[in-house]
Each structure stands twice: as structure tokens, then as C-alpha cells.
What we know:
alpha+beta; T-fold; disordered N terminus
Amino acid sequence: MNKKKIPIFIITILIVIIGLFHIINVFNKEVKTETISKLTNNPVIRTYPIMGTWAQISLYGSQKNIDIAMTRIHKVFTEVNQSCSRFSPNDELYQLNKTAYYKPFKCSKMLWKALTESLYFYKLTDGRFDVTVTPLMKLWGFYKKQNSIPTQTEINNALDKVGLNKVIFSYKNHSVKFTKPGMSIDLGGIAKGYAVDLAYDSIKDLNIKSGVINLGGNIRCLPNPPPGKKDYLIGIRDPFNKSKLMDGSLKLLNASLATSGDYEQYIILDGKRFTHIISPITGYPIKDMAETTIIAPSALWTDALSTSVFICGKKFAEKICKEFKDISILIVKGYHDKPETIKIYKYGNIWKNIKLPKTS
């Protein structure tokens, strides 16, 4: 969730539903509704900026129900942003970060759910998925520009303020309290997926079975395919050339998908490239991971796991896929300037047609 300026959104995952969609101008700053026709076998598409990124909603069904669904989805995204954004003084998480060291902060139901889910993934990853990583993000220049690589002393000082184990959770009162001054929570690694799940839940009673909810690359494909099709065809961004897709495509139904890539946000310090995904254990940006893509039933899970796998690596991916049979994971490792280091790892049969272009 960015502060005031919404960046030009480059969709990490491109949805390709051949012959069904017109081109949508995702750079239009106002909400745009494109009704291709009143027939139910054509989609209604809306795209708009929200939560520091772009939402693209494509639905099939009766015009009346689609209008209701679009309103509900936008309302959900707005509410999640108001609960889980850390940037505006009017947002709940901003107030939590401001006061939680001095006294327990009582959370709304929505924020409490986001925080407890974050705690679950913190424990699942042995502390590597950590929403208190904000001091490190600031230090490395992802919130405010820096001109040099931080010193080890600076990193150690920031690490002292990082760790969900330093946050007291009261399940009785639905409150949290920081035990260290200078701590801060950023839910950017889970909030968008959470919002997509809530958005989908909000329209289940409207008999809308076909469509796609896409919030900043956090995607939920509805249970039924578009009319006349068997599934949704999805392409994966080539992490080494973001103007291209990887070879092959996925066929999805009733599933969520998200990707984390080192091309999304990065900085150059002292002539070296650093990704925005930082290890809360070492305090340094992750090296040699280019992209992780997750497929799972829940968008919250794909959002959190795409970051978790990026930090934890192959062994963690193997563990997750053995423990959770409905999750598939794709990992691309390697350095942009060293083609010989590039390797791709696939967990789950769904990736069999996905390959890196030979030019990568």
C-alpha cells in the first residue's frame, strides 16, 4: 500500500482469456466500466486504483447482480484498506503503529484477522514471514531514498525492532502491544490477498459463478469458466524480462494465484541491485531468488506464501506442498546479470507447460 502517489501498475500476472476481453486501459485514473453487451455470455469489466495498486474485476451474469457485486467488491477493498494501510492517519493500522508501544491497541474484527493470519505464517516460516519488518524496509530505502548500503550496526539496530514474537497478542481483548519502541507493522504482504478472499465471499450469494477478481496481481478465478471455454488461461511474467511472459500458460478454475518477483521493486545502492523482499533474520535483501508463484484455494494464502517462499526457498516449498496437497509452487532462481545461474523449480503438475523463454 503506497502512500499518496499510486505507481503505474504493471500487472505481474497477465490473464489471457482469448476472444473474450477488449483491451482495458489500466492507466485511467477514474473508475471505468466496460459493458461489452447485455448478454450474459460477455463479461462486465471494471478497473480502478485502490490499495496502492490497480483492481481489475471481470464478471459474468445478470447486469443487476453484477452491479451489486461490483459495488460490494469495491466496498470490501475500501474497508480493508482503511483497516490495513499504515500510511494515512485515518487508517486503523496507522493508529496501531502510533500507539501500540504505549498501550494495547484494540483491533477491529478485520484488522485482528489480518494480524492473526500474519502470526500464523510467522510461525509456519519460523519467523521469516514477518509483518514487523518495517524498520528494515526504511533502513534500506524502500520507503525513503537512501544513498548507500546500511552498515552492520545500522542493520542490527533495526533488527532489534523486528519480530512478531515482540508483539503481545491478547486473544481475549483482540488487542496487540509492542514490547519495543520503534516497532511498526506493514501488512503489504498479506492484505491484498485477504481483500480478494473477502471480496469473493461477499458475492457468493449473487449466483455469479464466472469471472476473475484481480487486485494487484492477487487473482481469484471463480468456479466456472467463461461461457464457451473450459478454463481461464493465465500467463506468468518472465522475471528477467518483464515485457514478456514465460513460455506456456496455466489453466485455472476455482483457484487463487499470486507472484512475488525481484523485478517488482528494487533499489540500486553502491552499484548493486537489491530486491525489496528482506529477510527479517539477517536484515539483508534476499539474493538469487527471481520469482515465486503460488496457486492455492485462498488468495490470502497465495499472497503470504509468495513472500514466504521467496524468503525461505526450495526446502520450504517442498515442505508446504507435501503438507498442503492443494497448493502448487513455482520458483525461479538466479541473477539478472548471470544467465548461467538461472534455474526453475516446479512443485505440482500444473506447471508442466511453463518454461523460461530461451532468451532469458
